[in-house]
Write a structure and sequence with these properties.
Layout: H1 17-40, H2 62-148, H3 165-176, E1 181-182, E2 191-192, H4 194-204, H5 213-216, E3 221-223, E4 233-238, E5 241-250, E6 253-259, E7 263-268, E8 276-279
Helix pairs in contact: 3-4
Length: 281
C-alpha cells in the first residue's frame, strides 16, 4: 500500500457542460432575486426567500421565427415575379403598337397606289372614248360630204348597185326580220338581239360567226365607212370591244336589232353612225 493512499486528492472532479449551464442559470436567478430584494426594501429588511425564474434560450419560439423569415422571403420573390411580368407586358404592348403602326402605314400606301392606278385607268379610258368620238365625227363628216355631192343616185359607199351572191342572201334575210322584237339573248325566229340577228343572217350564206358582238367585229378585215358594201358588218365601240353590231344593206342604210323599244329596224347611217365596219365575205 502506498504511503500516500490515505491522503485524499485535492483535484476537483470535472463537471459536465450541462451541469455548468444549470448552475449558471440557478446562480443567475438567485442573483436576480437578491438584486430585486435589495432595491425594493430597506437594509435591515427580512430576506426574501421567493425566487423568480428567468427565461432561458430554450423558451423562445424558434419555429415561429423561421416561419416569419420564410414568409418574408416568399413575399419578396412574389414581388420580383410581379415586376418581371409587368415588364414583359409593357414590352409586348410596345411591340404590338409598333406593329400596328407599321401595318397601317403599309395599308395606306397600298390604298394610295390603288387610287392612283384607278385614276390612270379612268384617264386612259376617257382618252380612248374621246378618240373614238373624234373618229366617228370625222367619218360622219366625210359621209355627209359624199352624200351631198352624189348626183348619180348610187348608194353612199356602195361599189355595186345591188348585192349579189352571199351578200344578197344576207341582206334579204336581215330585211325579212324588220319589225321583229328585240330580246336580249334572242336568236330568233321572231325575236333577236343585235349579234343574234347578224349570226343568223350569215348562216343563210353558209358562214358561221361567233355569237358575241365583239367577237363578230373582230372577224374579217377592217373597211372604211366610205367603202361599204352590202353584207358588211357594222360595229359600235372599238373593233375588239364593240357593244353593238348590225348589217349594212346598201343605199346608206343598215338593218339591226336596236333595242327593246324599236325592235329590228332598217335605218340610215346618219341615224346612228357606226364606229367602223368589217368585211367577212
Amino acid at each position: 500500500m502506498s504511503h500516500t493512499a490515505h491522503i485524499p486528492s485535492h483535484r476537483k472532479p470535472r463537471r459536465s457542460a450541462s451541469k455548468l449551464a444549470l448552475r449558471a442559470g440557478v446562480a443567475g436567478g438567485v442573483l436576480g432575486t437578491i438584486a430585486v430584494a435589495g432595491a425594493a426594501g430597506p437594509a435591515n429588511a427580512e430576506p426574501v426567500t421567493e425566487t423568480i425564474e428567468m427565461p432561458t434560450l430554450g423558451s423562445l419560439d424558434v419555429g415561429g421565427l423561421a416561419s416569419a423569415v420564410a414568409a418574408s422571403a416568399e413575399a419578396s420573390q412574389q414581388e420580383a415575379l410581379d415586376q418581371s411580368l409587368e415588364s414583359q407586358e409593357n414590352l409586348a404592348l410596345q411591340k404590338a403598337a409598333k406593329d400596328a403602326k407599321k401595318a397601317k402605314a403599309e395599308a395606306d400606301r397600298k390604298a394610295e397606289a390603288e387610287r392612283a392606278e384607278k385614276a390612270r385607268a379612268k384617264a386612259e379610258q376617257e382618252r380612248q372614248e374621246a378618240a373614238a368620238r373624234a373618229s366617228r365625227d370625222s367619218e360622219r363628216t366625210q359621209l355627209s360630204a359624199q352624200s351631198s355631192g352624189d348626183t348619180s343616185g348610187s348608194s353612199v359607199g356602195d361599189s355595186t348597185q345591188a348585192p349579189t351572191g352571199s351578200a344578197a342572201a344576207i341582206v334579204a334575210f336581215a330585211r325579212a326580220q324588220v319589225g321583229d322584237a328585240y330580246v336580249s339573248g334572242g336568236t330568233g325566229p321572231n325575236s333577236w338581239d343585235c349579234s343574234g340577228l347578224v349570226q343568223a343572217a350569215y348562216r343563210e350564206a353558209g358562214i358561221d360567226l361567233p355569237r358575241i358582238s365583239y367577237q363578230q367585229s373582230s372577224m374579217g378585215t377592217s373597211v372604211s365607212l366610205s367603202s361599204l358594201q352590202p353584207g358588211d358588218v357594222l360595229y359600235w365601240g372599238s373593233r375588239s370591244g364593240s357593244y353593238h353590231v348590225a348589217i349594212y344593206v346598201g343605199g346608206g342604210k343598215y338593218v339591226g336589232a336596236q333595242n327593246s323599244s324599236t325592235g329590228v329596224v332598217e335605218r340610215s347611217l346618219d341615224w346612228d353612225m357606226p364606229s367602223g365596219a368589217v368585211r367577212i365575205l
